[in-house]
């Protein structure tokens, strides 16, 4: 009976193997990552192991041949090993389950008062798969289906607040959710963010611009449904690979889809999702628990971590970073954000919400650095790329905090003017709108400074055909922007440039669909990756125009007059940056600008722009080194000197940063020509001051944390009926009892069954 049961197990597992994913090496639709199961061990492994075991047993005891009882035991062991060989030496688990290798989970985030996101139970949540391709299919999982709980495979177009509220209301019948990507992106738009981003942490409040507080004037993100800020009691995963989605659907059609709406017969195709989160309630609770653990435990279990990374910054003219600027030194700030997010962890393409703006600023920094008289300008220019702005202005609030406390070389009083790039992809028109703060302009001095700033921008854009600068009514508030955090601390003459006059044009703000296609970054078919890298798209030309306007304006704001019209951003730089950040990070140009030890940070797909908790993130490193290579100077230093410039009397590490990068390919295109790049590019901590001050319930600073977890994975398998599971349990228990009885009997009669061979004695003749 045992043999037949084991054989049937092997046969059943072979039957299920037709749902295996493509073999290693098969391309993924997203970034070419490998998907698939490990290859099973060949049958001969089990047979050879059996032969070796027999050999060892035969020679045991100094060559003495085993007695009949031992030979019976030997046969039993050999049979077990052979049985394992028949099952191809593979583990039972790998025969039962198919792991899903290209998924992204929804994880738990916390702030001072709430928790948002998703989680599973500690042992994972399991349910019968039901595919929902239209709203009518929900009826089966909500009320009609006879085999709850269900894991819903939801088409991307149905991943809306309305559908999610229905599923959330029947959590007893829903054990999880797997979401497939919609292709093409939903035409009506999709944004899981809120309609008033970063509400409560900007400049407008009941005491300052109350008429603009909480987006009373109008909602900036009109398509936002706030789904990413809800709390779900079941796990939700994104299926990133189309092949895996098709495997799940095929398993569903074969086992779970019955004719005429009748109940399907067992076995049924099921899914198990693991995403148990350690933190609960709020940042205050989880940070307090972590602190207690750290204080009283030898091996503390930290349950959450603050969202943090690094801001990237550089100056046009080098400054001594060991001190601070004199009060009369004036600096023009050019700022933008680096980060974005979506509903799912570390899936944040951010094409329009972040990438387009920081790519334009990188190109502007390169163009401005090439101006002949930058060293003699009356004012310096500070380029800042803020991290964590999506989560209540983490990066900008930390920089303002450091400036106020003398922890940053530039102080708030050194800021002469502030120019920020918002969403500037120019998808719908050539118009670039200049947003200012109406409240600060009630001060006549600030009003005059803002007027001069707007005039300079208009003058800078006059000779750029791809951009048209537009003014707005002075009674209109600022959109969500880093400038708001600086205005909270000091009246600064500032402007935010954006491609929208009021509500965002971006229909996929902070969503999984804010990709290269959203800003029309496409390439002709049939081109090689290297040709795509250097192909100048229309979007690249438009963003080069934005970069040119910014560079010329910064030049004039810094006091330049002679070469403004000659400053021109390079469309080739823009197109390479767009390709690297949005299409394929592992390209020849990105490889050439990075340190050798950072090569592995570049994957075959786009970079993601979620701030995370382990920093610097891949995107931060790439922006840092892109800015260094675009604005820095290649100097003749050896690798050792570049890594320790204090050895060189003519170099000053207080003024410059030094980076040993891989460099371009040599003439034979096999080796690289490494070099030392000297620049003013540095990193500054982007951790909310709330955590430095241990004010975890702060309403002044961001308090976002991310829960820790132990295991995140998803897998599918065939599940038996409850009756069969019960029968299997009883049979297994019976076999256990029987084996115990047999073992007891054998042990009791061991002196009879197993006769010890007599020691050979001395023979006398």
Automatic annotation (TrEMBL):
Listed Pfam families: Ncstrn_small, Nicastrin
Broad class of the protein's primary localization: membrane
Keyword Glycoprotein belongs to the record: yes
An annotated GO BP: neuron apoptotic process
Function: Essential subunit of the gamma-secretase complex, an endoprotease complex that catalyzes the intramembrane cleavage of integral membrane proteins such as Notch receptors and APP (amyloid-beta precursor protein). The gamma-secretase complex plays a role in Notch and Wnt signaling cascades and regulation of downstream processes via its role in processing key regulatory proteins, and by regulating cytosolic CTNNB1 levels.
Residues of the Nicastrin small lobe domain: 105-279
Protein name, as recorded: Nicastrin
Keywords for this protein: Cytoplasmic vesicle, Disulfide bond, Glycoprotein, Membrane, Notch signaling pathway, Signal, Transmembrane, Transmembrane helix
Gene3D superfamilies according to UniProt: Zn peptidases
Signal peptide from the UniProt entry: none
Compartmental location: Cytoplasmic vesicle membrane; Melanosome
